[in-house]
Design goal:
Elements: H1 10-37, H2 42-50, H3 56-63, H4 70-81, H5 83-102, H6 105-116, E1 117-118, E2 121-122, E3 125-128, E4 144-148, E5 153-164, E6 171-177, E7 187-192, E8 199-204, E9 215-226, H7 234-249, H8 252-294, E10 296-297, E11 300-301, H9 306-334, H10 343-370, H11 377-384, H12 394-406
Parallel strand pairs: 3-6
Antiparallel strand pairs: 1-2, 4-5, 5-9, 6-7, 8-9, 10-11
This protein binds flavin-adenine dinucleotide.
The site of flavin-adenine dinucleotide has 21 residues, from strand 3, strand 5 and helix 12.
Length: 411
């Protein structure tokens, strides 16, 4: 088991510098344009694919890095480059993780490569869980999957919302209800293969930030997928449902155990979002530091004023603290340590709130210029707002932390 370390090893530093080079030379210069266009930056994704930065191999390597620092390091550098473009690059990973977590080896081998395509024909994938009436409250999901035994097909009906890459993806991973009696334990995940009839894109959202990332509704009307598209397979699902029914009969204590098991899975993915937030916060802090050193008022650089310098001191301190929480949680997840105190949620909560605060302070330090689109901190502040919302809002993270610490069903 890898010891916890606060320093990247030489190999990791090399990878970090390589990603940083792409973020600085390709992503940053393209950021304002794609933010204005509000479209998926396909040429940038293609550039990333050409050098291997958009590929299954690369993310698998980082995902299985035994120190746990591969993914946070990658996320921080990409989101330092630009959050909207970075989400277009890593959004496919959300769907890929859905398959890695629940799929058989055969399903992983068949579908995950199709999610990325190749450098000549780049593809993206979408993970569709949220619905208009089921955001934080995942158990309220209504999209139904019904098994047609005669044809060995599943029939999916419902409307998904807020899906990153929804409708433009080659492969969609869709979470649906197979047993409404069992709450979130009655859900299962399905692959919807490319060009499946019945799946269409609904509304594409015009957003406040991360505008280079495509977010849309996904409508499923009598979508028929073969039996082998149920992730994990039918036997495993039947066993899981039988166990859940038994536990449900066992009363509140039984449900408590079921919920905690699901919670542990979500916990493990949250530090990655924390790392994205650290990247955006660091980018804004660096802009503010540079500006404060060069902008002169009253005959001296504005950083000469404690009122400005102390803000920068606080910004940097919070960013470093956020990174440490993210690295701790990532290391715990990869080494199989239990999040006894909801450390995954802590890292996401602190890092996302830090990004919002730091990007707002950066605008203040840049004064009028910070408020314009001539300088990137305005975009960074709009982008940072997403981190306290997706993958569990800050309020939901606080609920998870408070419930874990107290053992009480706090509402
Ligand atoms: C840009 C973007 C990309 C996204 N990408 C995806 C994706 O790829 N796939 C996907 O499935 N989903 C995606 N989402 C959905 C995202 O995960 C949800 O928006 C999020 O879970 C919150 O759900 P909601 O928007 O319905 O808010 P709601 O759940 O309606 O929450 C509204 C407010 O009420 C608060 N609240 C709710 N319940 C409680 C409670 N019990 N205690 C205290 N406060 C509470 C929330 O914290 C929030 O402040 C994306 C969202 C956005 C905006």
């Amino acid at each position: 088991m890898a010891e916890f370390t606060m320093e990247l090893n030489d190999e990791q530093k090399e990878v970090r510098d390589w990603i940083h080079g792409f973020a600085a030379d390709v992503m940053r210069p393209a950021a304002a344009e794609w933010d204005e266009r509000e479209e998926t930056p396909w040429p940038v994704i293609q550039e990333a694919a050409k050098i291997g930065l958009y590929s299954l191999d690369f993310y698998a390597q980082q995902f299985f890095d035994p120190t746990g620092l591969g993914i946070p390091m990658t996320m921080e550098e990409l989101f330092w480059g630009d959050a909207g473009i970075a989400l277009s690059i890593v959004g496919t990973g959300l769907a890929a993780v859905g398959v890695l977590a629940n799929g058989t080896e055969e399903q992983i081998g068949t579908w995950v490569p199709q999610m990325y395509g190749d450098a000549h024909d780049v593809k993206v994938a979408a993970f569709c869980s949220s619905e208009p009436d089921a955001g934080s409250d995942v158990a309220s999901m209504r999209t139904r999957a019904v098994y047609d035994e005669a044809k060995d097909e599943w029939v999916l009906n419902g409307t998904k919302t807020w899906a990153t890459n929804g409708g433009i993806a080659n492969v969609h991973v869709v979470v649906a209800v197979v047993d409404p009696e069992l709450g979130s334990k009655g859900h299962a995940s399905f692959i919807v293969p490319p060009n499946t009839p019945g799946l269409s894109q609904g509304q594409k959202f015009k957003k406040h930030g991360i505008r280079a990332s495509h977010t849309a509704e996904v409508v499923l009307e009598n979508v028929r997928v073969p039996g082998h598209c149920l992730l994990g397979g039918k036997d495993k699902l039947d066993e899981r449902l039988a166990r859940a029914r038994e536990r449900a009969k066992g009363g509140v204590g039984g449900w408590g155990r079921v919920k905690n098991a699901a919670m542990a899975t979500f916990e493990a993915s949250r530090p990655a979002v924390g790392a994205m937030a650290v990247g955006t916060a660091r980018a804004a802090y660096e802009e503010a530091l540079e500006y404060a050193r060069t902008r002169e008022q009253f005959g001296r650089p504005i950083i000469d004023n404690q009122g400005v310098a102390f803000q920068l001191a606080d910004m940097r301190t919070q960013i470093d603290a956020a990174r440490l929480l993210v690295w701790r949680a990532s290391w715990m997840a990869v080494t199989g340590k239990k999040f006894e105190s909801a450390e995954g949620s802590m890292s996401k909560l602190f890092a996302s709130e830090t990004a919002k605060k730091v990007t707002a302070q950066a605008i203040q330090i840049l004064g009028g210029n910070g408020f314009t689109r001539e300088y990137p901190v305005e975009r960074m502040h709009r982008d940072a707002a997403i981190y306290t919302i997706f993958e569990g809002t800050s309020e939901i993270q606080r609920l998870v932390i408070a419930r874990t610490l107290s053992g009480m069903p706090i509402r």
